[in-house]
Automatic annotation (TrEMBL):
Residues 6-225 form the AB hydrolase-1 domain. It comes from Amycolatopsis pretoriensis. This is Pimeloyl-ACP methyl ester carboxylesterase. It comes from the Bacteria. Transmembrane segments: none annotated. PANTHER family: AB HYDROLASE-1 DOMAIN-CONTAINING PROTEIN-RELATED, ESTERASE_LIPASE_THIOESTERASE DOMAIN-CONTAINING PROTEIN. GO terms for molecular function: catalytic activity.
Length: 232
């Protein structure tokens, strides 16, 4: 029996290379893998892009998202009948009317905010990036300092509207089985917020003491959670 294709969706302040260690672990197990280049422009348009990628995959798909990528898989999987399971890696699992900003601020502990972000206005659209001096603490506290410094420089900015816009429609987690890896030391999405969203979605939960950059610091564990979803 052939294995499902794993489609990985990175979040804000990162790019698809953040999945490098996870991809290697999954490929070792024989999984076909696609790492999407997330446009980071807005939930609806980004989710449509992810959906187009998934529709181009033959056979069943397990869709995994990190951070803001979780909002995208929640939206795109409503339009992709070949998706069999959702995997949330320190990610948002929004319901209708909720935004990334609102969910991350619902519980105390988030260090991502106006004090730790830079704003660039491009074509009239504000784009956010994490200040390099704050990147390690906010995003990658358990990653070696030299690696975090590189991640800070190579991060991709996200359109502010992508994080502020309310989620529309029925969330895919209400109809598909989901798995959630909660990062207990996450300074971008408080663990309490991750717990709330996972419980609401009836996700199968695993917890780990890791930063928001858990795919970088703990790729083996991330791959295990994705493989568990694929096995079901």
């Amino acid at each position: 029996m052939s294995k499902p294709t794993i489609v990985l969706v990175h979040g804000a302040f990162a790019d698809s290379s953040s999945w490098t260690g996870v991809v290697a672990k999954l490929q070792e197990q024989g999984f076909p893998v696609v790492a999407v280049a997330n446009p980071l422009r807005g939930v609806e348009s980004d989710a449509a892009y992810v959906a187009d990628v998934v529709k181009g995959v033959e056979g069943p798909v397990v869709l995994a998202g990190h951070s803001y990528g979780g909002a995208l898989i929640t939206r795109s999987a409503t339009e992709t009948p070949n998706v069999r399971a959702l995997v949330y890696i320190a990610a948002f699992q929004p319901d209708a009317g909720e935004s990334v900003f609102e969910l991350s601020g619902r519980y105390p502990g988030a260090k991502l905010g106006p004090e730790t972000t830079n704003v660039l206005v491009h074509n009239g659209t504000p784009e956010l990036s994490i200040k390099p001096a704050d990147f390690s603490e906010v995003f990658a506290a358990d990653v070696p300092a030299e690696t975090a410094a590189i991640l800070a420089v190579t991060q991709r900015p996200v359109a502010q509207q992508a994080l502020a816009a309310p989620f529309e429609g029925t969330p895919a987690w209400s109809k598909l089985p989901s798995w959630t890896l909660i990062a207990n030391r996450d300074n971008a999405i408080p663990a309490a917020a991750q717990e709330f969203m996972a419980e609401r979605a009836s996700s199968t939960v695993r917890r780990i003491d890791a930063s928001h950059a858990v795919a970088v610091s703990q790729p083996g564990v991330v791959a295990e959670v994705i493989a568990a979803a694929a096995a079901e």
